[in-house]
Amino acid sequence: MEFVHVSVMPEEVISWAPQDARLIVDGTAGEAGHTLLLARRCPNARILAFDRDPEMLERARKKLGLAGMENRVELIRGSFGEIPEHTREADFILLDLGVSMHHFRGAGRGFSYTDDSLDMRLDPDLEKTAADIINHSSEKDLKLIFQNYGEERFAGRIARAIVQKRPVRTARDLSSIILGSVPRSRSHPATRVFQALRIAVNDELGEIERALPLLARSLAPGGRLAVISFHSLEDRIVKHGLRALDLKILTKKPLEPTEEEVRANPASRSARLRVAEKPADNAGEGP
Question: Can you list the domains of the chain with their CATH numbers?
Fold first, then answer.
């Protein structure tokens, strides 16, 4: 069954993109949802779209082709931290830090609780998988991963149970161990652990921290950087990271999806959008 990924906060995102933009960068192309919206809003812009997952780039390519936009967008395999290698004159850069619905429900790579894999790599060239971390980390290190990246209150109990049950081969098995280790709750008990593992495998928070200063330098004078985060760890890094840069913060508080959007797309409920602008008087500024 094919699951459709719905881009979050579409109207809010495109409202910040200058219609006369000459260069737009989608740093997290995914299935090209936001990319297409930006291409239509800014018909004269050259558009670069990055993703480190070759499977997602292929899905984006097909979607762009169906929309007749394949010639408007240059797809690049790479993370958003590599954007500065391609430009320092972007009028608008977008980062949607969420994970595509395809990863959760169609990729079979361990993002779903029922997958027969335990991989979780967004870039298949990364060395360590989620299975490597689960099966070779100490109990103490697992506890810290679950605490720091998942804010899991039962981190110690879960880490202990995993070590006792190793080797753990599949996401299905890991989910079963977690279910047997903690009290049942309204949300799935494995949610925070799976989030923590995904972050650890892909170094998601470290990538954001490293990339923000580089992305600021990739903007043209007057250019804007928009970032959509989906949990407090990401949003905290984005908030403080933008404030530390020589940028003008355009959203004093993060924008949130409307009630109507959340009803139509529950996955959008935790989205937060922050936007900053490079002052026009920074023209010619060095690295």
Answer: 10-102+204-282 (3.40.50.150), 107-202 (1.10.150.170)
pLDDT of residue 55: 92
Distance between CA atoms of residues 261 and 269, nearest Å: 8
Residue recorded with tokens 């980062």: 95
Q: For residues 259 and 265, what is the distance between their CA atoms, to the nearest angstrom?
A: 10
Mean pLDDT of 238-245: 96
Q: Report how far residue 40's alpha carbon sits from residue 147's, in angstroms, rounded to the nearest whole number.
A: 42
Q: Is the separation of the CB atoms in 255 and 9 below 8 Å?
A: yes
Whether the full predicted model's pTM is greater than 0.85, yes or no, is: yes
Q: What is the 3-state secondary structure (H, E, C) of 46-108?
A: EEEEEECCHHHHHHHHHHHHHCCCCCCEEEEECCHHHHHHCCCCEEEEEEECCCCHHHHHCCC
Tokens at residue 64, please? 């762009």
Q: In the chain, helix, strand, coil percent, each to 5?
A: 45, 15, 40
Which residue has tokens 């779209």?
49
CB-CB contact of 124 with 54 (8 Å)? yes
- CA 32/CA 23 separation, integer angstroms: 16
49 sits in the region (left: phi over 0; alpha: psi -120 to 50; else beta) called beta
The span from the CA of 121 to the CA of 96, in Å, is 17
Give the CA distances from residue 35 to residues 64, 70, 137, 206, 284, in Å, rounded to whole numbers and listed in that order: 9, 11, 38, 25, 28
pLDDT digits (tens, 9 = 90+) for 128-184: 999 999 999 999 999 999 999 999 999 999 999 999 999 999 999 999 999 999 987
